[in-house]
Design brief:
alpha+beta, 8-stranded mixed sheet, 4-stranded antiparallel sheet, 9 helices
Length: about 290
């Protein structure tokens, strides 16, 4: 018979996370989740016991502003998992969740063990399908699409742009360019979100897994892409570009894919945010799920 305890002490919660997390993807790492943990949230980790043995962890936090429980790291990190030694116990853990629990972006692999509701889809590029080469990937496009994209990239190359890496001072430029592109719809209008992404950038830099690209024309930074790579996966975290330069968005995406290939990554994770351009780049889709109580 399983029994459950709730843990609210941050240090103890971290110890539990480190003990149970498989650390397979970026979002399995405490330091990157913690970037999104603000004073608005209180730890409320649920630990399952079989006798005296810890058998699993459901890492919840309580949003003191919105008054609901959700997964540690809130809504930006994706592919959320339930750290259970015995997966058949998942229903018991979820039944033990407090009322007003909302968990989004649940990893596809968890759907094998519970009848979750469909949530958003994750966009990613499986580079292995194309021999881990940009040229191989381009062959997946129609002849016309490939010709047009190649032409657009070549015309920009004629302007003699340069690409610089990990210029921390260009993070502010990413924010400015994103705000100009999306106006009030930009996520970076929220200073708390902007601060969380800055923390993520600084954490990745400290861990030597940051890949922030700055594209410059005549010395001026006109596009910035924030990438992080971990365990052969390249995560496209954020980007901003000068909308006055035609096809600059295409160039930034192409440079990020090329950089991922150079870093020996097998996958580029473009996350779940919907964008028209994602439909045009022959990306793979994976269903994620949600749980609401």
């Amino acid at each position: 018979m399983l029994r459950f305890n709730t843990v609210t002490d941050e240090k103890e919660c971290r110890g539990l996370w480190e003990a149970f997390s498989p650390k397979q993807i970026l979002w399995d790492l405490w330091d990157f989740r913690y970037c999104f943990h603000t004073k608005n949230f209180s730890f409320n980790f649920i630990v399952g016991f079989d006798g005296k043995n810890k058998t699993g962890l459901l890492p919840l936090v309580f949003d003191n502003n919105e008054k609901y429980y959700t997964y540690f790291g809130e809504e930006f990190p994706e592919q959320n998992k339930f750290f259970l030694k015995v997966k058949k116990n998942l229903k018991a853990f979820l039944d033990n969740c407090p009322k007003d629990t909302e968990i989004y972006y649940i990893s596809a692999e968890e759907a094998e063990y519970y009848d979750f509701k469909p949530g958003d889809k994750r966009y990613f590029l499986d580079l292995g399908k194309y021999g881990n080469t940009f040229e191989g990937y381009l062959k997946s496009f129609t002849r016309k699409h490939r010709k047009n994209l190649t032409y657009d990239l070549r015309k920009l190359k004629e302007k003699n742009y340069t690409v610089e890496k990990n210029k921390a001072e260009d993070f502010d430029k990413l924010i400015d360019l994103n705000k100009k592109r999306f106006g009030p719809e930009s996520s970076y209008v929220d200073s708390e979100f902007a601060g969380a992404i800055r923390n993520l950038m600084e954490t990745a830099d400290k861990e030597n897994i940051l890949d922030m690209l700055s594209i410059k024309f005549s010395g001026a930074t006109e596009a910035v892409g924030l990438g992080v790579f971990y365990n052969n996966v390249y995560y496209v975290i954020g980007m901003g570009r000068n909308i006055e330069i035609k096809n600059l968005g295409k160039l930034l995406i192409a440079e990020q894919i090329k950089s991922a290939i150079g870093l020996k990554c097998n996958e580029v994770d473009f996350l779940s945010t919907e964008a028209n351009w994602k439909e045009l780049w022959n990306l793979d889709l994976e269903q994620m799920y949600k749980f609401e109580k």
